[in-house]
Design a protein that fits this description.
The chain has seven helices and seven strands. The protein is α+β, with helices and mostly antiparallel strands. It folds into two domains: about 35 residues; about 160 residues. The strands form three sheets. A three-stranded antiparallel sheet has the order 6-5-7. Strand 5 and strand 6 form a beta hairpin. Helix 1 packs antiparallel against helix 3 and helix 3 packs across helix 4. It starts with 11 loop residues before the first strand and ends with a helix. Bound molecules: zinc ion (ZN). Zinc ion binds next to loops. This is Paraquat-inducible protein A.
Length: about 210
Amino acid sequence: MPHHRTDDLDELIACPVCDALYHARMPETGERVTCSRCHHVLIAPKEGAFLRVIALALTVMILMLGATFFPFLSIDAQGFSNAASVFDSALAFTDGGWMVALSFATAALIVLIPVLRAALVIYVLGPLAFGRKPWPGARAAFRWSEDLRPWSMAEIFVIGVAVALVKVSDLARVDYGPAFFMFAALVVVIVLQDGSMCRWTIWKTLEDKKSS
Ligand SMILES: [Zn+2]
């Protein structure tokens, strides 16, 4: 249960679900602070959470490398066979015009933004995980990573592909390449990473370590 006090505006925390306002304090490790109105978890610091988030962010970057360059799928139809990676597909639209812009934007949403977010999280949490002072610009980097969250579309890409493949499978034989399974794994890892990040704890640690 959050602490009720009336001083210190910095320590205010609003429930993202029901907007109830609380004065927050750092709970003991393993303890969690929940909204007393709707029971949404507000603060949940976990032992070793920063290191776990860093490990998951590294996993995102490595998986994304494979998911981009390994064959994504191969299609067989009437004797013709074609295998392509996501990278090949992004380069396929080089004949000019707005298709180039479209393929670049698609590649950015699917590949670059999730990788950028992972890199920002590692930059922010790296020093904190070892009890050091944050690196310069860590607050801006974390803000940026949070702002980019809705634009990270690896998950939506996987769902889109699944729907498209159901349609295509009537016309041609479709085989999934290793990159397809890497994308599927990415979706799980990104969800795990976002789930193990207690944002309040990260902001609070950035604030406390800044002056020390
Ligand atoms: Zn609430």
